[in-house]
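[INFO] parsing input record for Transposase InsI for insertion sequence element IS30A
[DEBUG] input buffer:
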Amino acid sequence: MSPYTHLTLKDRESILLGISTGKTLDTIAKEIGRSKSTVSREIARNGGWRNYSAATAQDRYRRVRLASRRPRILDRPGTRDAVIRYITVLHWSPEQIAGRLSLEGSPIRISYSTIYRGIYLDNLGVPLKSHGARGLPRLLRHRGKTRKIKGTINERRGRFNDVPSIHDRPRSAENRSWFGHWEGDTVRGKTGHSALVTLVDRKSRYLLSKRTANAKADTVRDVMIELLGALPANRVRTVTPDRGREFARYRELAERLNTKVFFPDPHAPQQRGTNENTNGLIREYFPKNTDLDLQSDQEIETYIEQLNNRPRKVLGWKTPSEVFMGKKLHLS
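[DEBUG] output buffer:
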């Protein structure tokens, strides 16, 4: 690191005082602890011995310093607009944006920390709708919400026991080495209305989902058969649903699909972490108590497609669609 330090306003005032009292260049330099060449250049570039001004010199110094800095990456309109689109339209997180741009070799090179700084500095230049509005931070993954503490939520849905245990599931399901090991659940909308059946492949995080008129066991079974039955046999090896009553027809499901069904331990959602995480992503589009009856099939399919085309850090910034389908997409 260079030992050089810039002249301060106090130094410049001392130089002006020295000039005013007729001191020599050598004397002024010794008094402020600088070399004669430094003081000579300072005087020459700021009006000379006759017109030197400490205030003018300090102001010029500040302007030159600002002009010498590298422009902020997000000051480039093309980069800023692209980042805003990824957040507002595709619902990507800053880390997903940075990771995917790097994976595709995009000319836009930016870190996720830079994006976060831009969001909290000036909302990426997007005007706030009203005083006190939070702007883009409200579109980020957790929207500033605090996490629920384990054990504080009272579960009121029906449960059943004596079912095949997750501990008997094949090793390929545990280590995610093969496609076709699915985790299942339902995402409820407004009470008494329709719900979403969600199925997530453990290896690729690929999502299958469809709206169902209700969350009754027969209805959920039929939707799961429809979704999984359209896949090749080697893409349906096991299914691990939630322990809710809506999956009570699991034996019929296993028979129709010629597959095996396993259940997690009671009160252990972490054993189905892939599905739970995906349901959290779905809640970004459909918050709790949303009336899913009011959503069109096209809207639901669009949101599912967005999630399957959202780059994931765990997949090396590839998307679930790319991993599951084996095809590379260009997204950025």
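[INFO] The mean pLDDT is 89.
[INFO] shutting down worker
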